[in-house]
Write a structure and sequence with these properties.
heterotrimer, A mainly alpha (299), B alpha/beta (244), C mainly alpha (358), A: 299 residues, mainly alpha, ABC transporter involved in vitamin B12 uptake, BtuC, two-stranded antiparallel sheet, 75% helix, globular, B: 244 residues, Rossmann fold, six-stranded mixed β-sheet, 10 strands
């Protein structure tokens, strides 16, 4: 019973959750859409990785230069064709549309790939691990996932704070109406953000598929975990999703050491607890906190 | 001043027969207006008269149900905001509407994304507004009301506009601060900009502008050069007295 | 100096009438009563083969009406109502285990689901829109896990519903049929009556714009709570019915998210925020299921796709479209303003300029 090892494994697992969560957080922050198909899009990424790596006969990492741009384009297309139109039909429409999309994706995957659990070919990386001390073993794969998450979050942070595109995105997220008024073209902003969200989801899906198995129905649980990470870490905060992810991961692994059957339940209960005590999350931005208050139920 | 040989008297902005609806509610009824090049037009009227709606329609945020908007001779009625900005129209919205998570400098930079010209680079803007130059790295919402209004104007200037639309810039500000802002506007006028100013303070409006349009319940109640009307006449139009 | 306002003596306002009912509605209600009576005698007249499909249809109608109360009228897009189907099913098992007649147990299951929904609502009703939707998914997942981890209700394997062995098959099926019919009628009628009261207007205000509703004095929290608990209770009853129909209660099937998919489809395609819409949607889903269920997962792809299409293209649903075209409102929930009532005196000609008239 090595608590330190459990915590470390949990932290690394948290990196994966952060990776799947950051796209959801970005999409919500900028477009105010909770994409209920986000988890399923991650699973699509895993399946695409499976197809590409089988066809090309290489470990899935080699397919990434093909996979990620494809996911980006798919995300932008979904935004332009579907989500953007949904936004024009009222506040509830995107919720309904993304849920319907989720159903379609899961069942299309079912038709195409059957419900057999699959795994991705991660090459040598899957098997390698190293020891820190006698009791602590770290798998390179887990570590890579965590470092990738940190790298992605850093890149996004830099893009948002130092580029002209980033300024446009932040302005649009702050005030859509005024952003249009000062001449920002909102549709390309939304399309690129959606593209990034789906690309990060696909990347996360590839890691999830390499570390564990996946099947067409895995999307819903992936969405739930991503959402929980966002809420715990704080709406509107990118690095908050890392904190949220780590909180989930540590809870899951530590409780799992005691009793595996209760691990997932414990994660959900942690989420519900944070929702009760601090609905704004631990690292809410000033703006987002005000919004959560406004979004809450008056009276 | 326009260099394309058009007679100097031709209006820069021309609006005719604008009807604007918010859903079923009609906000503007057949509004027509003409803004001369290089002039300053005051747009006055009670709350709810339609001044902000009119400004937003000119800026492209509100599509009219009928009527047209012509800028520099070209029909821009269907053009989206970014195209209008590229042609030279910029708006300072009511309530300033700065972007809270952007710094002062970033707010100004964002105003230039669809810039019509490079006439107002950052250095020139900071020269014109020294008080905000000092705070360029701060988040916009940490500034005082007057400074925020200056940033909002600066943001619009960053687009290098020929026509500047200003919506209630004196709201909530101390008189001395408003004095300063209007001083800056006078400077812009002498640099060749055309202004349309929505203003609650009638005295200021008539002092700063040479043309006046008064809206009442979505219709033009009075449109005349400032020199040709008395304050009382404007007030009468403002409140709708003397209507049949 | 401004002219002082002149007030005239009030003129008789006999020029408009506001109605909440119509002859069409009366006729339709009469038709409904006849239809329900006819359906009630089906077990005697036709028996077994007609009962099964009708049971499915009635279950759909009940689920759809209740989800419409939540999402269509109150703006609460919950995709976790399957939680209450499961809770209702397990509640029925528990009461049947304690010797209560399973058919009477339906009411207890509904009450149990409503009671459980109270603490849940304290958590999820803080949120709205997409966040609310995902939170309901989490809640449903939690309940499913709890059921899986509880050996007293069979854990992963599940349990069969006791107390039904004493009934002959024919009688059991007929009783299930009548129970399902009763729950369906109660759901539609219950939602209808609820929405015709002030609650209906309040709920729709909350659904459109909670902040505006609150500033108009609507007790937003109360309305949402009432909608949530009522829908939970009704859905619990549906869950109990499902347990009675399948005779077996097992976590993955009673907590299946497919129920939520069906609810979404029926209300979107049939027509949100109308009483007739969910019934129409239930019919459509029923027909789709009869024709397409052989195609396995494609069936659900089509269901999802139609729901998406309905939101984007026909956001008022089939009933919204038809009802508007034909001018029908068979079960009206709104207020109609009619022109001058017949026999009202002509409005007096305006004499002088009156500053009070625009």
């Amino acid at each position: 019973m090595n608590w330190v090892n459990a915590v470390i494994q949990g932290m690394l697992l948290g990196g994966q959750y952060a990776l799947i969560a950051c796209g959801l957080s970005l999409a919500f922050g900028v477009m105010r859409i909770v994409n209920l198909a986000h988890g399923d899009l991650a699973v699509c990424g895993a399946y695409l990785g499976l197809v590409l790596s089988s066809v090309l006969g290489v470990p899935v990492w080699v397919t990434l230069p093909l996979l990620l741009p494809a996911a980006f384009v798919a995300g932008a297309a979904l935004q332009v064709l579907l989500f953007g139109r949904a936004l024009r039909h009222g506040v509830l429409a995107p919720v309904l549309v993304t849920f319907g999309l989720s159903v379609m994706i899961e069942n299309l995957l079912q038709v195409a790939a059957t419900s057999d659990p699959r795994g991705l070919n991660g090459g040598a990386l899957t098997l390698a691990s190293f020891h820190i001390t006698a009791g602590i073993t770290v798998s390179w794969l887990f570590l890579t996932a965590f470092l990738t998450a940190c790298a992605v979050l850093s890149c996004l942070q830099v893009l948002l704070s130092r580029t002209s595109w980033g300024r446009k995105v932040r302005a649009t997220a702050d005030d859509l109406d005024t952003a249009r008024l000062v001449g920002i073209r909102v549709r390309p902003v939304f399309a690129t953000v959606a593209g990034i969200a789906v690309a990060t989801a696909a990347l996360a899906g590839v890691f999830i598929g390499t570390i564990g198995t996946f099947d067409p129905q895995a999307g819903t649980n992936t969405l739930i975990f991503a959402f929980e990470a966002v809420v715990i870490g704080g709406i509107g905060s990118l690095w908050g999703t890392l904190v949220g992810g780590v909180a989930l991961g540590v809870t899951q692994v530590v409780v799992g050491e005691v009793n595996q059957a209760y691990a997932v339940l414990a994660v959900h209960l942690l989420f519900l607890a944070v929702l009760t005590i601090r609905p704004g999350g631990l690292f809410t931005s000033h703006q987002a906190a005000a919004e959560v208050r406004a979004r809450g139920v008056p009276g | 001043m326009s260099e394309d040989g058009r007679p100097p008297g031709a209006p820069l902005l021309e609006i005719a027969g604008l009807d604007v609806f918010y859903g079923d509610f009609q906000a503007l009824f057949g509004v027509s207006m003409s803004v001369p090049r290089g002039g300053a037009t005051a747009l006055v009227g009670a709350n709810g008269a339609g001044k902000t709606t009119l400004l937003r329609t000119i800026a492209g945020a509100q599509p009219p149900a009928c009527g047209f908007v012509r800028y520099d001779g070209a029909d821009i009625t269907a053009a989206p905001p970014h195209r209008r900005i590229a042609r030279g129209i910029a708006v300072v919205p009511e309530g300033r509407r700065l972007f809270p998570s952007l710094t002062v400098q970033e707010n100004i930079q964002v105003g230039a994304v669809a810039a019509a010209s490079g006439a107002w680079p950052l250095e020139r803007i900071y020269d014109a507004f020294p008080m905000i130059a000092r705070r360029r790295g701060q988040r916009a919402f940490t500034l005082s009301g007057g400074e925020q209004q200056a940033v909002a104007i600066a943001r619009a200037l960053a687009a290098g506009p020929s026509l500047l639309l200003l919506d209630e810039i004196s709201l909530g500000l101390a008189p001395l601060v408003v004095e300063d802002l209007y001083g800056t506007l006078a400077g812009l006028r002498s640099a060749g900009a055309t202004l349309v100013i929505v203003e609650q303070d009638l005295r200021r409006a008539m002092d700063a502008c040479d043309h006046l349009v008064c809206l009442l319940e979505g219709r033009v109640a009075l449109a005349a050069p400032v020199a040709d009307v008395s304050r009382d006449q404007v007030i009468a139009a403002y409140f709708g007295e003397g209507r049949p | 100096m401004r002219r002082p306002a002149v007030f005239r003596a009030a003129e008789p306002l006999a020029t408009v009438a506001v109605s909440r009912w119509s002859r069409t509605a009366s006729a339709f209600t009469a038709v409904c009563v006849v239809v329900v009576a006819a359906l009630a005698v089906v077990p005697y007249v036709i028996g077994g083969p007609a009962e099964q499909p009708l049971i499915t249809l009635f279950t759909f109608i009940a689920m759809a009406s209740l989800w419409n109360l939540l999402a269509g009228f109150s703006g609460l897009t919950s995709f976790g109502q399957n939680a209450f189907i499961g809770i209702g099913a397990y509640a029925l098992y528990v009461v049947a285990l304690h010797g209560v007649n399973p058919f009477a147990g339906i009411i207890l299951a509904a009450i149990a689901a409503a009671v459980v929904s109270l603490p849940v609502s304290a958590l999820v009703l803080r949120l709205s829109g997409g966040y609310f939707a995902v939170a309901t998914l989490v809640v449903a997942a939690v309940f499913q896990i709890i059921a899986t981890l509880s050996p007293s209700v069979g854990g992963t394997t599940g349990v069969s519903v006791p107390g039904l062995a004493g009934y002959a098959d024919v009688l059991r099926e007929a009783l299930t049929y009548w129970a399902t019919l009763a729950v369906a009628v109660a759901s539609v009628a219950g939602v209808y009556l609820l929405v015709r009261r002030t609650f209906g207007l309040d709920a729709r205000a909350v659904g459109s714009d909670p902040v505006a509703a609150a500033s108009s004095g609507v007790r937003v929290g109360r309305i949402r709570l009432l909608a949530y608990v009522a829908a939970a209770g009704g859905t619990g009853a549906v869950g109990a019915l499902i347990a009675l129909q399948t005779l077996y209660v097992e976590p993955t099937s009673v907590f299946s998210i497919q129920y939520s998919v069906y609810m979404l489809f029926m209300v979107l395609v049939g027509g949100m925020a109308t009483i007739e819409g969910p019934v129409v949607g239930a019919l459509v889903l029923f027909l789709l299921q009869e024709t397409l269920s052989a195609y396995g997962a494609w069936y659900l792809v089509i269901v999802g796709g139609l729901a998406v299409a309905a939101t984007l293209v026909a956001s008022r649903g089939i009933w919204g479209f038809v009802g508007e075209r034909l001018g029908w409102s068979l079960l009206p929930v709104g207020y109609r303003v009619r022109g001058p009532a017949p026999g009202a005196p002509d409005p007096p000609a305006t004499s002088r300029a009156d500053p009070n008239k625009s």
